Amino acid sequence: MQGHTGDVDVETVRMNDGRTGGAIQGVRKTALAGLSIEALTDALKPLPAFRAKQIFRWLTRGVRSFNDMTDISYMVREALDKRFSLYSSVISRRLSDADGTVKLQLTLEDGCVIESVLLSDDEGRKTACLSTQAGCAMGCVFCKTGAIGFRRNLSTAEIIEQFLHLISMGAIANVVIMGMGEPLLNLNALREALSFITGELGFSKRRVTLSTSGIAAGIRDLADNGPGVRLAVSLTTADEPLRERLMPVTRTNPLPLLKETLIYYQRKHSKRITLETVLLRHINTSHKDAELVARFADDLDVAINVIPWNPVAGMRFEGAALGEPDRAEVERFIAALQKKGLNVTKRFKKGRGVAGACGQLG
Ligand code: SF4
To answer: 85 pairs with which residues across the strands?
Structure first.
């Protein structure tokens, strides 16, 4: 655990069926979360269709157990519990930070572990941060998920379940696809999950942001085939040789190609894009670095989101320990961008006490 320590409350959660995370045993039951009403109706046969509607309504509220479905008789709940589970994943650990952030560690059916985070802003609005892969193959040097490597893509249901687990902890105002993994390398499953979240669950697309390390083919696919959610690109630096070393994705997706693709995306969607820059002490924070970012932003309608690196122990870049930039370094960088007329925001440091901040998952 990194950063400030905060008041951290760690809890291993026992599920309604007695399982605890990491120890999934016994017969596998069909999980109901993430099924459309039609699919749920089919799965529940011979129960009548109105039961599917009742159960669906409970699931969208993030209910934890069949027993909580109070408008269904005890006998039916018992029968349901024998045949089905609510989720295929188990909350194996829940960590709460004093700043309102909650990080869930979910153990999937095959034992893979992923993380999802619920961030809370100063007004109490909640943002759900979802993962799309177990681990990540992209190898960004400043990211803990990158350091653990790639395990597998998540299924549509596993992405939806994260949203449903988080909704049980409060109303969600925004969704960011910024957890573990590169979303554009699991776009089909993500697309279906988002279609469920924004369709069946009625969540507005305008309140969903997908963040990519900059995979041009995926951005083009998004531009052509949707979904029309907000796009964020983790740029980090516009110094091409440096970016190649910090984010290996640059070797196959060079910055000119990335920029050309973003212009294409913007022509189709005319939506403002967010360029995220993770600031690493003395690495990408100079005046020249800011100028290169501003030059990259030319011809694009963008907001720049500056993210001072969230420390993760033991992470190194070319032999030296990575460091968090100091306040003056961050402010100088922001001022240089603003001088170029750019709209700059700084990401709050929520979640550091539970290692749930950007780049700390894994
Ligand atoms: S920053 Fe994102 S794309 Fe890069 S390694 Fe981490 S999870 Fe993967």
So the answer is: 31
Q: How do beta strands 84-85 and 30-31 pair?
A: parallel
- In this prediction, residue 10 carries a pLDDT of 44
Half-sphere exposure of residue 4, counting CA atoms within 13 Å on the CB side?
A: 8
Q: Is residue 362 part of a domain?
A: no
What's the pLDDT score for residue 212?
96
Q: Tally Cβ neighbours within 10 Å of residue 64.
A: 16
Longest Cα–Cα distance of the chain, Å, equals 69
Structure tokens belonging to residue 96:
């709460």
2 lines ligand 1 (CB under 6 A): no
Pocket probe mutation, ligand 1, options 114, 130, 140, 187, max atoms within 8 Å of Cβ: 140
Structural domain of 205 = 94-354
pTM of the model: 0.90
Which of 129, 130, 132, 136 maximizes ligand 1 atoms within 8 Å of its Cβ, making it the mutation to test the pocket? 136
Cα of 16 vs its chain's centroid, Å: 26
